[in-house]
Design goal:
By secondary structure, the protein is mainly alpha-helical. It has one domain. 59% of the residues lie in helices and 5% in strands. The chain contains four helices and two strands. Strands 1-2 form a two-stranded antiparallel ribbon. Helix 1 runs antiparallel to helix 2.
């Protein structure tokens, strides 16, 4: 397995652990930008990090062998919507 794939898997585990933000749970201060509680700002940044991680996972860890099934012609039973 490629080393970059292991790095992305390790990054996914780190993001999973960082989701449990117990350090910001009982406080609303400091306010970010003067109005946004720190916990909400943390989760907004966390959501953006998850988007970047998902893009990395698709680019690096997507199983390429599944792409051959996309190129197969569709049978009439699956294209009529039933």
């Amino acid at each position: 397995m490629k080393p970059v794939r292991w790095f992305v898997y390790l990054l996914a585990f780190a993001v999973l652990v960082l989701h449990q933000d117990w350090w910001n749970f009982h406080t609303a201060t400091p306010l970010v930008f003067g109005f946004l509680p720190i916990g909400l700002a943390y989760h907004a940044a966390y959501s953006l990090a998850c988007c970047v991680l998902m893009a990395l996972l698709v680019a690096v860890a997507w199983p390429k062998e599944l792409e051959k099934y996309e190129a197969l012609p569709q049978s009439p039973a699956t294209t009529d919507g039933h």
